[in-house]
Amino acid sequence: MKQLFYAFVIYVSLSFVANAANCVNCHKTVTPNIVSDWQISKHSQNDVGCETCHGSEHNSASNVDKVSLPTPETCKTCHELQVTQFSKGKHALSWASMKAMPTFHLQPMYLTEGMKGCGSCHKVGLKSDEEIKQLKADGQQHGVASCDACHTRHTFSKVEAQQPQACQTCHMGFDHPQWEMYSASKHGVRYLLKQNGILPEGTSAPTCQTCHMQNGNHEVRTAWGFLAVKLPLPQDEQWKNDQITILQALGVLDPEGKPTALLDVVKAADVARLDQESFDKERNKMLKTCGNCHSEKFAKAELEKGDKMIREADHLMAEAIRIVAGLYKDQVIPKPANYPYAFPMLLTFHDAPTVIEQKLFVMFLEHRMRTFQGTFHANPDYALWYGWSEMQRSLAEIKELAEQMRKDKKG
C-alpha cells in the first residue's frame, strides 16, 4: 500500500512539474513578469501550478479564451478560513452595494463593469453566477476574482496584503480618504518612519490591518459602517430626529418615519449596523485593539469623540436636507420623478438635477464623511478643515441658494 501511495505522490509531482513547465516555457516569452512573480511566490514553492487556478483547457495560443480565472471558491480549497471570513464581511458585499446605488446604471460601462471607476474597487465583492457569466461574455474576466484585490497576482503575497499601502488604491479620495487620513496621522507617520528604517523595528506603529483585520480576520467591519447610521436610533432626541431625516434622504425611511423596501437592500449590502448587538461587537473589538497601546479609559473616550462628532455633523446635515425638502414641498424646484418621496435622494450622487442638490450630495458624501472619519482616524486636519468646516460652508451656501430660489419663484 505504501508503494502505491508513494507512486501516486511521485506521479502527481511529476505531472505538476511537466504541466507547469509547459506554461512557463510559453509565458516566459508572452508574459515574462507573470512567470517571475509566480516563481517567487509561495504557490510555486508548494506545488500550486498554473492548472490549479486556471484549469487545463487553455494549453496553446489558439485557445486563450478557455483560460479560467480563480474565484474565492478556488482559493477556498487551501484557504478555507480566510475565504469563510471574507464571505461574511463587508468586502464580499461591495459589488452588491455598488449595484444598489440608484443611478449606478447611468455611468459609462467602462467606469463600472469596465473596472475603471467604481467597479475597479468594488470588484472585490462576490458576484452571482449570472453576473460572472455576463462579465465573461463582455470580456471582463478580470472582474471575476476577488482575493487578488489585496493579494496581487501572481505573487499573491501575504506580506504585501499586510501593508497599509495595499488598502490605498481603494480607500482614498473623494468619499473615503482613509489612506490620506491614516498616513498623515501619528499612527501612519510612525509606521512610514518605521518602514524607512528611521524608527527601530520594535516600534509600535499600527497599520490599517492592525485595527480593521484583528488577528488576520478577513471580515473587515466597523461599528458605524460606511454611512454612519445605525439602529436602534439614538436616545438623544435631537440626534434621533436628525438621523431620521438622514435615513429619509437615503430612502430607508418614508416621510412618516416608517421603513421602506430599501431597508432590505441596506441590510443585504451590510453598510450599516442595524441592531445594538452588532454595533457593540465591532466597538468592543476596536477597544480591545486600542488597548494594546492605550488605556481602556483613553481608548473609550477617543471613540466616543467620534460618536459625538457624528452627532454634530448630523445636525448640520439634517438642516440642509430639510431645506431642500422644503423646496420640493413648496414647489420651488420640482421633485425628480424617480424620487419616491418629497425628500432629496443622497445616493443619486452627481446625478442630482440642480446645483443646490449637488451641494447637498457633496456635503453628505465628502464633507460629512471626512468629519467623522477624520476624527476616528486621529487626523485633525481632515476632521476640521476638510470635514466640519466644509459642512458649515456648504450649509451656508445651501441656505443662501434656497433663499434666492424662493425670491426668484415669487418673481
UniProtKB/TrEMBL annotation:
Transmembrane region(s): none
Family matches, as Pfam families: Multi-haem_cyto
InterPro entries in the record: Multihaem_cyt_sf, Multiheme_Cytochr_ET
Domain of life: Bacteria
Signal peptide (from-to): 1-20
Entry keywords, A to Z: Signal
Gene3D superfamilies from the UniProt entry: Hydroxylamine Oxidoreductase, Chain A, domain 1, Hydroxylamine Oxidoreductase, Chain A, domain 2
Protein name, as recorded: Uncharacterized protein
Originating species: Ignavibacterium album (strain DSM 19864 / JCM 16511 / NBRC 101810 / Mat9-16)
